[in-house]
Amino acid sequence: MVVCGLACWRCRWLLPLLLGLAIIMGIIALAGRGWLESESEPYVRQASLWESCTRAEGDLNWSCESLMRYGWGRAAAATYLVGFVILVICFALAVIAFSIEILRFNFVRGIGGLLFVVAAFQIIGLVIYPVKYTEEIPLTGDNMFSWAYGFGWASTVVVIGCAFFFCCLPNWEDEVLGNIKPTYYYSSPERAPYLN
């Protein structure tokens, strides 16, 4: 029976798959309108990375203002978006790196370094947004940072984990490339009763 761990050539697509998952969560965070929402009824506030919407109680129409008119809004959006673009580039590089039969381990370590840069940009954006939003925009009622903001953090956590694995993968170069001969343990039939 073959055991397939992280340091296994057959499992080389696991890390690019995780980066793809981080991209999907990043897209949800960028497009979602659930960065900040009213926690309970009446639901009068809804915000995304790009705009903040409010409505009066009983009104069905949202009144939205762009967060891009604030310096902190542009900074939060720009840092998160730059991190996301670098993440997409890292995903493409990872697919290329793991498609080549002779894996370039220094190349893989470089992808890990870029992923740490991605995480730094995303964390900056994810910290600027709630701090400055609550300082600059008056909030009414109970509000919470909601599902789209959570997807932003989930994407960042996956990126950090992948960055560590990409940086550590060259330490298992021989195992990944299959350069280590398997070790077989054999016991003779005479010794079998003593093994119990």
From TrEMBL:
It comes from the Eukaryota. Signal peptide: none annotated. The chain crosses the membrane at residues 12-36, 77-98, 110-131, 151-172. GO terms for biological process: apoptotic process; cell-cell adhesion. Coiled coil: none annotated. The keyword Nucleotidyltransferase does not apply. It is found in: Cell junction, Desmosome; Cell membrane; Cytoplasm. GO terms for cellular component: cytoplasm; desmosome; plasma membrane. Its main location: other. Belongs to the TMEM47 family. This is p53 apoptosis effector related to PMP-22.
